[in-house]
Write a structure and sequence with these properties.
about 475 residues; alpha+beta; 5-stranded antiparallel sheet; 3-stranded antiparallel sheet; 16 helices
Length: about 475
């Protein structure tokens, strides 16, 4: 046996040509290697969530309480999806402004308090729902028909109450997946919900089965036939957690170095008389005890015994590379959360108009996509159920029923650009050239065009009555050709 054969056998290489072919064939990304590790088993969406959902939710909630950047993202989501005034409803029945005004007035009256505990308005409910959706990955809303003046109240259900450990087949052909009963097409039929939180011993939680028609389940569908949602920060929880630990360790080390102002040296060179003078005539205090009591306070410097010296070690923390390393990690976290680094970190020191605009474009598209999903899964469904109950309770009496008078258009919050003058000029040009409408442009700003027109008419009428001439609207200035 040759030396090469011995080496190949010792290394476990029996057929070098086969190894060479294995390296060439197939996809490298499908092979487990020393530098490449991944979970290579195929699982159904609910199986992978069943194993990790509780831990993911607990991790996300911990970050929401203790990570400044996670808290910032949750607030960003509530602010950018719902907005300060909530996603506003505009009823749009052509040529029936009186009906539209009646429906909108009733909607705003109902929105003063929408929960059975009497605590949340519709705007506050939206903010809490979005914060829960970001943190827990899903929200469950129970539609309490027959309650309240308009016959509808909304109850937010803690996702922990929907028991994800219930998984079984049923005799009627249905199956329960993670607490949700579905039919053969994976359509929810009922929800298995505890009457109280499982960790609340005083609540005496019991499981009840609630029909799907009474529950709105909102979450982001990330896989086909997924029945439960996962926290939005799942891809970057590790980075957020490690970044938080890094900063805590750096701050602790910096504080320790700042407290350790100097090191006393020279004890070995002291004479016996000096040692006796330091320790005292009765020798009741040791040199170490005396030295340990040589402390300093803010804005003071104490003397030291004769014959000693103080060495001031250099401060090495915070590390000079900590800021750049933090920025590097946060850029990856921001990408996973689909926001810009400048927005998440609040760092615009190196940004300019062009870089901010380039970063905000995809971020705002991501917020709009989330707004569209929330409106479809939550707002539209709540509005139509509300209209039905308002009609049944007599709060809205219009011919044709809910299908005739409930025509909602939703105007979520929008954003001004870094230079709002350019945005306003572009809106004016679009309207003047029949490329847009007042309804669309004012709706983007969260305004009802009818209300704006009424207010402008009232202002004009009052100005005319007192002889005041209002300024004429200014058209945008045409762009000047470059001078030679």
């Amino acid at each position: 046996m040759s030396l090469k054969t011995h080496i190949r056998k010792w290394l476990g290489i029996t057929d070098p040509r086969g190894v060479y072919r294995a390296k060439r064939g197939g996809f490298e990304a499908a092979k487990q290697q020393r530098y490449l590790s991944f979970f290579n088993a195929l699982e159904a969406a609910h199986n992978e969530r069943l194993r990790d959902l509780a831990a993911l939710r607990a991790h996300s909630r911990d970050l929401s309480k203790n990570s400044a950047y996670m808290r910032a993202f949750i607030d960003l989501a509530a602010t950018n999806i719902v907005g300060p005034e909530g996603i506003d409803l505009e009823n749009n029945i052509p040529n029936r402004e009186d009906w539209n005004d009646l429906v909108e007035a009733a909607w705003h009256e109902w929105g003063q308090c929408v929960t059975p505990d009497g605590r949340l308005s519709w705007v506050e409910f939206q903010h809490l729902a979005i914060e829960t959706l970001v943190t827990d990955g899903e929200i469950f809303i129970r539609l309490l028909r027959g309650r309240g003046p308009f016959g509808l109240e909304l109850e937010l259900i803690d996702p922990d109450r929907v028991d994800h450990t219930i998984n079984r087949a049923m005799n009627n052909g249905r199956r329960v997946i993670m607490g949700i009963e579905v039919d053969e097409w994976n359509k929810p039929c009922a929800y298995h919900i505890r009457t109280a939180h499982p960790a609340d011993p005083g609540g005496h939680p019991e499981r009840v089965v609630i029909p799907a028609g009474e529950i709105l389940h909102v979450y982001a569908d990330e896989r086909i036939q997924s029945v439960r949602g996962i926290p939005w920060a799942t891809p970057c929880m590790i980075q957020l957690n490690m970044l938080d630990r890094l900063w805590k360790s750096s701050l602790a080390t910096a504080n320790a170095e700042a407290d350790r102002i100097g090191v006393i040296k020279g004890m070995a060179s002291l004479t016996p008389d000096d040692r006796e003078a330091i320790s005292g005539e009765n020798a009741t205090e040791t040199t170490a005890t005396v030295a340990s009591e040589l402390t300093t306070e803010m804005a003071t410097f104490m003397g030291i015994p004769p014959g000693m010296d103080v060495d001031f070690p250099p401060l090495r923390h915070p590390n000079q590379f900590l800021g750049e390393f933090t920025k590097f990690l946060l850029k990856g976290v921001a990408s996973g959360l689909q926001v810009s680094y400048h927005t998440l970190a609040g760092d615009v020191a190196e940004a300019n108009y062009s870089s901010l605009r380039a970063a905000l474009l995809p971020e705002r598209d991501a917020w709009r996509r989330r707004q569209t999903a929330i409106i479809a899964k939550l707002h539209n469904k709540v509005a139509h159920i509300w209209a039905e109950m308002a009609w049944l309770t007599g709060k809205i009496i219009l011919p044709g029923g809910p299908a005739a008078f409930c025509k909602p258009i939703w105007w979520p919050r929008s954003w001004d650009w870094v230079d709002p003058l350019k945005d306003i000029n572009s809106a004016i040009l679009a309207i003047n050239n029949d490329l847009s409408t007042y309804q669309e442009e004012l709706g983007k700003r969260g305004l009802d065009w009818r209300e704006v027109f009424r207010q402008r008419a009232a202002e004009q009428e009052y100005a005319d009555s007192i002889g005041l001439k209002l300024p004429t609207p200014i058209a945008p200035e045409p762009k000047q050709p470059p001078t030679k």
